[in-house]
Amino acid sequence: MECILYWHDYKYLAYEKELALKEIESLIQPEDMYVEQNTIKIVLNSNSKKENLSKLTYFSRVELGDELIIPIQAKLEKIEGNGANKRQATRYSAHGIHEYKGKFNPQVVKSLLNILKMNENSNLVDPFSGSGTTLLECSLQNINAVGLDINPLAIFIANAKQTAISTDVERIEEIGETIIQTFRNQNSIRDPQVESTAREEYLLKWFPEETFLDIEKLRRIISNSGAQVENVFFVLLSNIIRDYSLQEPGDLRIRRRKSPFPEESLIDTYEKSIKKFVNNMRYSQSVTGLNLRRNTALQFDSRDLSAQEGLLETEYFDGGITSPPYATALPYIDTQRLSLVWLGLIPPNEIMSLESHLIGSREFKNAIKKEWEEKLVNNTSDLPISIHEYCSELLNSLGEADGFRRQAVPFLLYRYFADMQLMFQNLLPYFKENAPYALIVGHNHTTLGGKRFDIDTPKLLVEIANHVGWNHKDSIEFQTYRRYGMHQKNAVQFETLIILNK
């Protein structure tokens, strides 16, 4: 029987169509396939599972004889609509609850789950789970998954998403309306009898006092709501507080604000964000229902899983999907420090310590730099010879004109590769034999001694993975969406999907 698959109207990147073809092969196993400009025609055979047509990620509709099938993914994306710009919708379900730097495309995760043949009997891990994109996509397909991350805000957001998809939207709407009404009926006052804390003193440096009083009042109201979904409302508020802070909202670093404050009041913006989220969840719950697998994010360090003995079982995972930090990564903690402190997830004096502990962190004090210089020279971490030689080449290329940050690059990269090697080593025993592990890795570049170095991080990570026992199955180059604004110059232009197996 012949089947016709129709693309969406939005513009695809080349890798998305490549993933779509791999997904068809994995899910449908067609007898023949004909790729045309606006459609793909496939011929089903006796092994083809027709029910899997509704699981496809990148198609708007499927014609199977006289039957019209709308894939579940296409239904979910309708809430945002593709609009006049014909853009792919990525904030469906709970994905849009909070912006998170470095978050990867949910459609990629969905298609990888299909390509890697993950199903309701599978157990999956994301060792750099961030705000929980992989976990949420697994939940939407009723796949059991666990996420690991050392950023407490990432864990907080990821678990709030899981709460949202498993709570009746009418309940979420009711609580949201109560929070807003209670706020409008109360004055924002500061109790002069209560001594200020380090948390409060820190936040008052970065928020106008009136704004600080408002977000603190909302914090109390949400905490006293008596609802099990309070973290959903904390996350929705966390998503907007930086726009009302004294920090430049578009900057990843700590810089004082030069742009004007929003004209709309914080409470009006918060109310609109709640209503938008409720509408989003109402539609997605109409598509998926509430009987979804509720997955969990845990505050683990993937470099040392033995420290969490008993929570992960040996030979447990059927697969893994992740987007690890880049070498010289975004300053995740620094960027999110206002939310981290406001939510009470970390005291102000621990911000930089946690930042420096992240894989790929660019924070490097002189004492640490000296320590890693010695490790690089002696290859203390036992990295593959080719990796050690590459880092040594970067070290020998440093020139007098290179400033402090560039002087640190060879040691930062060596530390990054050493940390990633620890991750690969620690994770390997928890995978079943032949279980696949997919990583989306960004390319990097730097200039040392006046010479540009294009750092093929994916290729180097494959060498490290092979070094500790993983097999390399495939690599697919991704073109990233063009970035605009303050950081477009340093934006990653290419990523590579690496697929390993045990």
TrEMBL record:
Q: Name any one Pfam family assigned in the record.
A: N6_N4_Mtase
Q: Is Endoplasmic reticulum there in the keyword field?
A: no
Question: Which GO MF term does the entry hold, naming one?
Answer: methyltransferase activity
Annotated GO biological process: methylation
Supply the InterPro entries for this chain.
Answer: DNA_methylase_N4/N6, SAM-dependent_MTases_sf
- Asked whether the UniProt record includes Transcription regulation among its keywords, one would answer no
Q: Where is the DNA methylase N-4/N-6 domain?
A: 70-155
List membrane-spanning regions: none
Keywords noted in UniProt: Methyltransferase, Restriction system, Transferase
Write the protein's name.
Answer: DNA methyltransferase
